[in-house]
Here is the input.
Amino acid sequence: MPEIDTSRAHPARMYDYLLGGKDHFEADREAIGALLKAVPNARTGARENRAFLGRAVRFLVAEAGIRQFLDIGSGLPTANNVHEVAQSIAPGTRVVYVDNDPIVMAHARALLTSHPSGQTAYVQADLHDPESVLGHPAVRETLDFGQPVALMLLAVLHFLPDDQDPAGIVSTLLGALPPGSYLVASQTTADFHDEATAADGIQAVRRAGVPFQSRSAAEFGDLAFTGLKLVAPGLVPVSEWRPETEPGLIPPPGEVGYLGAVARKP
Ligand SMILES: C[S@@+](CC[C@H](N)C(=O)[O-])C[C@H]1O[C@@H](n2cnc3c(N)ncnc32)[C@H](O)[C@@H]1O
Here is the structure.
């Protein structure tokens, strides 16, 4: 079992704490405490991002006919993991989860509760090295790269600043997938915050030792969705992507702070 360093904040555990989970340590809670001071609605954003994930998976399985998912930066198991949502509609769906945090590996059993007619796998790998994900035996055994795959990159690209070439990484991953595949991606934005709030929020995460870059809709669109065909309604605050609640119950973009989209590889 890989070493889990509890002395430093880690994104998977910070996000778990934001979502009200139970797998986090003092350093993670301190980092989130500082973030909540700067951005008091940060919990709303995490919950809305998770709800977007569920709606996007349901769309892909029920309407786009997708039966394979590659979920990178999957996070700790929580409610409505990708395979649970997908297999509730199409039990034969196959899902590979990838994360670089050893704590996710330690809890991965909860991600491997596949319906018997489908399949799930967990791979510890780093998004910085997309070839190691694409070439991993568990990925190759679980997914058929001759058939469309939905690549899921939710709330993970903001941990890759531009100098780490996130656009090149996304392009390498998409390049390995056949036409008709999809990308679902979300990330934090400061588009709906005033500059001081945004800067304080970003600094709170960076001070905890976690590389972090917020992006505008234009920057995120260029990075992730260039050359793809956006599914309506396009790149929007995640709460506004095919919402299932009444308009009056959708939190305003400034409380959400995440952009997301679903797009098809032509
Ligand atoms: C905020 S959580 C998002 C979880 C889930 N995708 C969601 O949107 O609900 C981000 C996850 O990305 C993982 N992560 C961060 N950097 C990564 C990298 N370079 N490679 C793989 N996973 C990474 C973290 O460990 C964490 O579990």
